[in-house]
């Protein structure tokens, strides 16, 4: 099985769609999931009770916080990453190199690294798209080789899986 770094932030629908439309279908396609949530996304799933269903899609722990110094690294080092759903907030931070949580630390460490594939599927309000820095953030990520897709809330999030290469 090929490892996939699957990262999610707190976008509307996370509690009902992330496991059903991304984690489970990715696992069914042959990916072994190393899942990391932003702290807010983690809090949402902890509150709705969706965390157990998500955890059942992988043999690896679902991460929400960074490890303590001296603790072993709980995940392998995937060569392929999918950040979906990605919020406007997390897109901006990733493009600027801000790593103030485990999800952004992980992605920031591999962004631009040779041999790494990163796909980012974002779900954002039109109000965010009008922000003067928004297009610059997307351009920064695209210039680093990131495969980008804007999620349409009316369509299944599973379309994001088509951004990935076939698992080896
Ligand atoms: C119910 C709800 C739905 C939200 N949906 C989105 C969304 O689809 N896209 C987005 O960019 N932000 C959305 N937000 C705002 C983010 O959750 C907020 O900006 C948060 O700080 C993002 O943190 P994160 O990127 O670390 O997960 C939503 C907030 C709430 C309360």
Automatic annotation (TrEMBL):
<protein>
    <submittedName>
        <fullName>Flavoprotein</fullName>
    </submittedName>
</protein>
<dbReference type="InterPro" id="IPR003382">
    <property type="entry name" value="Flavoprotein"/>
</dbReference>
<feature type="domain" description="Flavoprotein">
    <location>
        <begin position="11"/>
        <end position="103"/>
    </location>
</feature>
<dbReference type="InterPro" id="IPR036551">
    <property type="entry name" value="Flavin_trans-like"/>
</dbReference>
<dbReference type="Pfam" id="PF02441">
    <property type="entry name" value="Flavoprotein"/>
</dbReference>
<dbReference type="GO" id="GO:0003824">
    <property type="term" value="F:catalytic activity"/>
</dbReference>
């Amino acid at each position: 099985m090929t490892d996939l770094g699957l990262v999610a932030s707190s976008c509307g629908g996370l509690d009902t769609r992330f496991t059903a439309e991304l984690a489970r279908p990715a696992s069914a396609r042959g990916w072994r999931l190393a899942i990391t949530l932003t702290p807010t996304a983690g809090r949402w799933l902890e509150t709705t009770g969706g965390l157990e269903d998500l955890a059942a899609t992988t043999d690896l722990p679902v991460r929400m916080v960074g490890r303590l110094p001296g603790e072993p690294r709980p995940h392998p080092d995937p060569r392929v990453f999918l950040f979906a759903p990605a919020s406007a907030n997390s897109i901006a931070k990733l493009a600027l190199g801000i790593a103030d949580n485990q999800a952004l630390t992980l992605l920031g460490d591999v962004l631009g690294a040779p041999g790494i594939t990163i796909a980012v599927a974002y779900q954002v309000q039109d109000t965010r798209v009008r922000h003067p820095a928004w297009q610059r953030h997307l351009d920064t990520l695209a210039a680093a080789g990131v495969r980008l897709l804007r999620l349409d809330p009316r369509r299944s999030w599973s379309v994001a899986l088509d951004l990935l290469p076939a698992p080896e």
